[in-house]
Amino acid sequence: MYKTLEDTVGQTPLVRLKRLPGKLVEARGTVVLAKLEGNNPAGSVKDRPALSMIRHAERRGTIRPGDTLIEATSGNTGIALAMAAATSGYRMILVMPENQSVERRQTMRAFGAELVLTPRDGGMELARDVAERMRDEGRGIILDQFANPDNPLAHYEGTGPEIWTETQGRVTHFVSSMGTTGTIMGVSRYLKEQNPAVCIVGCQPEDGSQIPGIRKWPEEYLPKIYERARVDRIEPVSQADAEEMTRRLAREEGIFAGISSGGAIAAALRVAAEVENATIVTIVCDRGDRYLSTGVFPG
């Protein structure tokens, strides 16, 4: 039987970083592995929860083809939902801050989504408020990546088991950028069930830094799916460090990725410098072509 597009979500490559960790890390017996989520069909780790949220909502009878879906997004979830909606016959309205990259907006529109842009000063908080107001006005149904348990479930059922299998159970540390927190919640739950000693490290921006895809939420906007107890350690990363590591990731490892991935790699390398005989896995969330207009890469 032939596969559908949805069948190609997941089972992404897990590759060893060869140059960035450096000789000292390797001499200590530590390896740093990157899971290349940009290989998903819509180009990011968010393909997993987007498909999960739509399919589980369909099974519950909450949505059906022809309905209008609304979602607040900073980019990747919106693109993934637009792709999944296109394959299943939904109208997709995405609410996002106006300062998100041109490439992200163009990709969403290419999948047929309608965009509602909110003032940049309001950030994702305002985008979430606007989406909820639209829902309350009866304009569509919100799947709500920030509160929907089907978001982390995608990683508990997919990403986590893949990491465990691909490392043959050797994973000692998992490092992930934190945005909606679905990835780190689902993977943490699965890996801790296999081995409670696995250290879960979350990456957040330093105060004053703005890194696409990584957030430090005000308490009132903290995602409802987030459980503090599932994260052992928080690593703050500056915008400058995330951007520089993103460029180095392309130049030194041949991995063309987005800025949140640079932040996660920077945090993973910090951890790698502290430990011995460790297997550290981190998530490369998406591809770098969504960030060309931001100026992060040399012109």
Automatic annotation (TrEMBL):
Enzyme type, top EC level: transferase
Pathway field: Amino-acid biosynthesis; L-cysteine biosynthesis; L-cysteine from L-serine: step 2/2
Residues at which pyridoxal 5'-phosphate binds: 76, 179-183, 260
Requisite cofactors: pyridoxal 5'-phosphate
Sites of N6-(pyridoxal phosphate)lysine modification: 46
Catalyses which reaction(s): O-acetyl-L-serine + hydrogen sulfide = L-cysteine + acetate
The UniProt record lists the keyword Transferase: yes
Keyword annotations from UniProtKB, A to Z: Amino-acid biosynthesis, Cysteine biosynthesis, Pyridoxal phosphate, Transferase
GO biological process, one term: cysteine biosynthetic process from serine
Recorded superkingdom: Bacteria
Key word Ribosomal protein present: no
Similarity field: Belongs to the cysteine synthase/cystathionine beta-synthase family.
NCBIfam families: cysKM, cysM, PRK11761.1
Protein name: Cysteine synthase
Gene source species: Propionivibrio dicarboxylicus
Origin organism lineage: Bacteria, Pseudomonadati, Pseudomonadota, Betaproteobacteria, Rhodocyclales
